[in-house]
User: What shape does this take?
Amino acid sequence: MTHRSVFVVSGGTGITAEAIGNSMLSQFGDVAFTQHSLTYIRTEDDCRQAVARIQAAAEQDGTRPVVFSTLVNPTHRELLNQSGALVLDLFGTFLQPLEAELGVRSSQKVGYSHAVRDPSAYRVRIDAVHFALDNDDGGRTHHYDKADIILIGVSRSGKTPTSLYLALQFGLYAANYPLTEEDFDDLRLPEALQPYRDKLFALVIDPERLTVIRQERMAGSRYASLQQCEQETRTFAAIIGRYNVPSINVTERSIEEISTRILAQTGLQRRIR
Amino acid sequence: MTHRSVFVVSGGTGITAEAIGNSMLSQFGDVAFTQHSLTYIRTEDDCRQAVARIQAAAEQDGTRPVVFSTLVNPTHRELLNQSGALVLDLFGTFLQPLEAELGVRSSQKVGYSHAVRDPSAYRVRIDAVHFALDNDDGGRTHHYDKADIILIGVSRSGKTPTSLYLALQFGLYAANYPLTEEDFDDLRLPEALQPYRDKLFALVIDPERLTVIRQERMAGSRYASLQQCEQETRTFAAIIGRYNVPSINVTERSIEEISTRILAQTGLQRRIR
Assistant: This one.
């Protein structure tokens, strides 16, 4: 297996460069990559140190490192280009066609999305996180009028992480409520949820996956048994079917995918970008 | 102000394409962008529908839309390129130079980072979120031996959202503990924290910002007064100085920036990528 050093170089957190880097590198299963992050590159001096680290890796490996860069500053980009590495300039490559298309020059400053820099977006986000925490797991139900969405599901179907992701990433007020055995007797939605039926969204999970997750937490318990998981998921399906609650099957999906699909399905507008 | 329609087109969540799109568009302050997400484009049919939506916007606007695409499938990319929009092909543009450099062909499948698809990474992440919740706000302290990091700070300095972000994004076990007036009398760290001094990390906030945040929550209270905020932040600074606790000033920083800087400063290794 061949080996390559990979550097993510950014004037900020490096999260964007890393995401696109990971996605591209996953295309090359036969190469072993060693990944390094060089973030908050703000000065020419930072830049020269980054280049020195890249060149040291090149010397040690005997091969050219691969660099994913989101540097914005033209001088910094130029310095990086002289490193001798394969520099994939995510920002610079598209800036010129974009300027040409829009007919205006760019500000060439480090750019952030609103979610990251706008103080009012910051507040929305923090408030949303606290809302998710306060309204987690059915603990409180008297603030549901403020909720953008109320996730329902059986225990360990991923309600809490999804609520938190919706809050952190999109600034949405997401409550969640577990449906438990007591709710299953009469196939009715719990009283607390009845007035908010139009805010409900169901997380559905396959019993085979649910039992694995529950076993990790309470091995050998009735709660974790396949039989119990089958019964709960079957009854849950009947309830959401009866009330026409929109749903997503979370079994094979990441939190990102669940959350973005919920947005797409519900048409909910994110509060931050 | 000129106006442009912008489309984020992705075979997955669109999060990466959106991040780079937001960052590039923020360079053009004089253009009003209307943003659309076309995500989970998985089939040629999905692709044709996306192209139709882009072309409809072009017709309505009378200008070419801008498209940020992370489509991987070559046929889909080709279809998108024929839309007539300015297509910034984030994936395709760098694939060829990368293949040439590595001397291997890519698999051309939709790529995901480990964090997103690997089931064991999924579990780490969920466990980390539950750890952050269980160990939030000093509520429990007897699991600190399992913590990767324990964030300390005055009330409303951003400990909870930062802990959750560290959990969701990096799979880290992050506890947090508020330092309150009772802890300030003798300038000592609370007993519960003493055995874990090497795991502590302090979130420092300017009193002027803190009072604004607290006013939003409890307007007119002593808790929110500038005087109180000044006293708490001053005493907090004295305590972390005395115990040499590493720190970051969070005042002007996003949660992403705080979290990634904590990683860089502590050298903590993320559990998921």
